[in-house]
Design a protein that fits this description.
Layout lengths: L1 H14 L5 E8 L5 E8 L6 E6 L16 H10 L4 E5 L4 E3 L7 E3 L1 H4 L4 H16 L8 E7 L1 H12 L6 E5 L6 H9 L2 H11 L7 E2 H4 L4 H11 L4 H4 L6 E2 L1 H20 L3 H7 L5 H8 L4 H4 L7 E6 L8 H12 L5 E6 L9 H6 L4 H13 L2
Parallel strand pairs: 3-4, 3-7, 7-8, 8-11, 11-12
Antiparallel strand pairs: 1-2, 2-4, 5-6, 9-10
Length: 371
């Protein structure tokens, strides 16, 4: 009996840890494939569902990690503001037990994951939700993260289902080919490195900056550069470590990656880059970029972007703002966050149990849009 009481106490404690009620959904897609999804409901009548489209690769409705579930934490943030939060297993994916990603992947099913197919799957899931009488009048806010910002815009433009607004986090402005080229040239690496080493703001690392005995610099020198000597990293011999050096080091890999994509070498890509298929790349490379697609949308668009985003450049957000101004369009709202990364400093929540400015703003905007 004592053991039963203790177990019940633990259950109640864990069930009160989050401000949402989860409902697991089994949803048939248009081609007969079936996926699992989760709708997290707040403790109030639901007026708005934040439908999350995750970033690239194998993902599940939990996005489980060793000590936390990413989508549990986000669901809590949105539901505390009164909005429901929806996530789903990508085709061929389900939660597993193997770190670091904790995803089991059925390769045959996962191979169908491309941006257009994902857009169609999202439309099917939204239609499924809207058949529930509780949600027929609900607003749908598409919350795209990274690659999800491309898919969210695609769904909104197709107008197969009604979308009330876009929340775009880690905004992808260019075509994926150009984004991957930017990444492989080393721009993201330099953004991260400069945030630690570059003290004079010239977007380069001098020998003095590199060899300082500051604790943070010493730690990142090991983590980012394996303690290589300054002269070994100054490849172009211009007295600093800058984008030209990083590009020299990284571009041969980019050429090899493109060759493997062309040759449909999924095994090499999975082993040396990430678990995404050659067809995923090729489908993305054919897509119109967000920088022109978004101009055709008339619904509210909110972009949340860290100024130190090392995955997609913040300059794309500024360019989009200029394009909207030229076209006299007023439905774009940009939120540039100082000292925020691609994850909008999610680590602040993990370490301090305090949401970053970026996430507080994201939750607040979702609440305002639901009124």
């Amino acid at each position: 009996m004592k053991r039963v009481i203790i177990s019940l106490f633990v259950f109640l404690l864990s069930s009160n840890a989050f401000a949402f009620i989860p409902e697991i959904k089994t949803i048939p897609l248009n081609d007969g494939e079936v996926i699992e999804a989760r709708l997290c409901l707040p403790d109030n009548k639901v007026k708005t569902i934040v439908f999350c489209i995750a970033g690239t690769g194998p993902t599940t409705y939990l996005t489980k990690r060793t000590t936390f579930n990413y989508f549990d934490e986000l669901a809590n943030g949105f539901c505390e503001e009164g909005t429901a939060f929806f996530t789903y297993n990508r085709r061929g994916c389900k939660t597993g037990e193997t770190p670091p990603l904790f995803v089991e992947v059925d390769s045959a099913k996962y191979a169908k994951y491309t941006p257009v197919q994902e857009a169609e799957d999202v439309e099917t899931m939204i239609s499924f939700l809207q058949k529930d009488q509780r949600f027929t009048e609900c607003k749908i806010l598409l919350y795209g993260i990274s690659e999800g910002t491309i898919i969210a815009a695609l769904v909104a433009e197709r107008k197969v289902v009604h979308i009330d607004a876009l929340l775009l986090h880690g905004y992808a402005h260019e075509n994926m080919y150009d984004i991957i080229l930017w990444q492989n040239k080393g721009h993201g690496v330099m953004i991260m490195a400069n945030s630690v080493f570059d003290k004079d703001g010239d977007k380069a690392i001098s020998k003095e900056e590199y060899e300082t005995e500051e604790e943070t610099v010493i730690r990142h020198k090991t983590y980012m550069f394996q303690n290589m000597p300054f002269d070994s990293l100054d490849i172009v011999k211009n007295g600093v470590i800058d984008i030209h050096d990083i590009e020299k080091m990284r571009m041969p890999f980019h050429g090899e990656l493109i060759k493997r994509i062309t040759n449909n070498d999924w095994l090499w890509i999975r082993s040396n880059y990430f678990n995404i298929t050659p067809q995923w790349f090729k489908s993305h490379f054919k897509l119109e970029p967000n920088k022109t697609r978004l101009l055709r949308l008339h619904i509210p668009i909110h972009i949340f972007h860290g100024k130190e985003d090392a995955n997609v450049p913040v300059e794309g957000v500024y360019d989009l703002q200029e394009r909207f101004e030229v076209c006299n369009k007023t439905n774009l709202n940009i939120h540039i966050l100082e000292n925020h990364n691609h994850d909008l400093n999610f680590q602040d929540w993990l370490i301090h149990k305090k949401w970053s400015e970026g996430f507080r703003l994201l939750f607040s905007v979702a609440k305002e849009l639901s009124l």
